[in-house]
Design the sequence.
């Protein structure tokens, strides 16, 4: 393994310092005096967070960010500011923020249950053995599995899809699968491993195999955002984008979901084709980076001035997982360089703990310059902003570096 100091090049303060913890704690603490736990959750920010209802797909990421810091405080206390924040208070905040999420576990109208539940409830179960957390995960996994169609070989991602030009509303005609769904498979694999329910892991593997067959453009390894399957034949009838620049363009966050999702699928199955998919997607991702090393929101957009930092962070986590499985240093080096280049471009380090333990902060997010959806036909079009899952994956990258022993 390369020397940590050479890899990180002084990034430890940004990855693990008290300013990073202060930023998350400032948002978390702001809701602790409310009479009831949150039912709205942070999503994007142009300084201060905009909140969405609990049934929105990003509701699990901020509670997951707090849980990522709980994990760090327990497993890696050397890299947590124990003198600034009592871990018991942090644990209380993590549970408070996640209190109402279990009510979403019975939903069968969404594929995003992995995004909602894995960031918090896997960590709580692994750290504390909380049976209630495992029960929530089991319920959510079984709900997600109801969306699997044997003929198509995938779980349905969206029941409907709308923008200013197209509308898909008939589930009998259209079966929409998005590349993002790869990152929900971890929920199925995890619950299968904990309960022995191999039906769940079989569904996850079949979904990954079908995605590998139909979502990629070969031989370059860019990918489509959405594949629409014919319900009768089980074959694709259309491939297009919902959040990228255009249907045949390379949307960078779509690639990041592919890198991370297939790296995770390989970790559970050890199927070589999944590892190759993760590696090839990552190699294509890196081949399209500009000199600054920060991904454009879409690699084929006319200008690369609009970035997507969330794509960088999810890809970096995927690269660390590839390194974990292969022990090939080049993936570690590429992952850390991606983080390093991104942090040079964006890091809001102005937060600080005050003498009374509260937080002063100008912005809610650690990282700016993500792009939620810059498609010209998007109903909700937002670009160049902070984004809750960019921060979440940044924290997850830090924890993975500690887990891998890159930082001691």
Sequence:
């Amino acid at each position: 393994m390369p020397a940590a100091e050479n890899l990180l090049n002084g990034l430890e303060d940004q990855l693990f310092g008290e300013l990073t913890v202060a930023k998350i704690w400032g948002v978390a603490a702001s809701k602790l005096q409310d009479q009831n736990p949150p039912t709205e959750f942070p999503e994007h920010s142009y300084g201060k967070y905009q909140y969405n209802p609990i049934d929105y797909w990003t509701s699990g990421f901020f509670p997951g960010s707090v849980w990522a810091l709980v994990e760090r405080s327990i497993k890696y206390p050397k890299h947590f500011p124990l003198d600034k924040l009592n871990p018991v208070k942090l644990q209380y905040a993590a549970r408070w923020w996640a209190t109402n999420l279990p009510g979403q576990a019975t939903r069968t109208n969404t594929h995003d249950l992995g995004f909602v539940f894995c960031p918090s409830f896997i960590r709580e179960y692994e750290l504390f053995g909380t049976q209630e957390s495992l029960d929530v995960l089991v319920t959510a996994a079984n709900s997600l599995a109801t969306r699997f169609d044997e003929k198509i070989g995938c779980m349905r991602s969206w029941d409907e899809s709308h923008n200013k030009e197209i509308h898909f509303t008939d589930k009998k005609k259209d079966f929409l699968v998005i590349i993002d769904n790869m990152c929900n498979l971890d929920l199925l694999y995890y619950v299968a491993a904990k309960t022995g329910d191999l039906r769940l892991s079989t569904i996850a593997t079949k979904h990954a195999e079908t995605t590998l067959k139909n979502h990629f453009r070969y031989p370059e390894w860019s990918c489509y955002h959405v594949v629409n399957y014919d319900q009768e034949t089980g074959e694709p009838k259309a491939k297009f984008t919902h959040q990228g620049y255009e249907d045949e363009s390379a949307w960078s966050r779509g690639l990041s979901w592919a890198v991370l999702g297939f790296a995770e699928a390989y970790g559970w199955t050890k199927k070589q084709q999944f590892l190759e998919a993760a590696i090839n997607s990552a190699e294509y991702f890196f081949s399209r980076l500009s000199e600054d090393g920060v991904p454009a929101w879409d690699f084929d957009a006319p200008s690369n001035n609009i970035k997507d930092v969330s794509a960088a962070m999810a890809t970096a986590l995927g690269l660390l997982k590839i390194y974990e499985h292969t022990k090939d240093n080049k993936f570690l080096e590429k992952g850390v360089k991606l983080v390093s280049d991104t942090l040079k471009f964006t890091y809001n380090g102005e937060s600080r703990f005050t003498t009374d333990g509260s937080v002063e902060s100008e912005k809610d997010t650690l990282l700016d310059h993500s792009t939620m959806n810059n498609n010209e036909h998007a109903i909700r079009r937002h670009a160049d902003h902070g984004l809750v899952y960019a921060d979440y994956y940044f924290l997850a990258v830090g924890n993975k570096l500690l887990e891998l022993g890159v930082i001691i």
In short: The CA atoms of residues 42 and 51 lie 4 Å apart. The chain has one domain: 4-403.
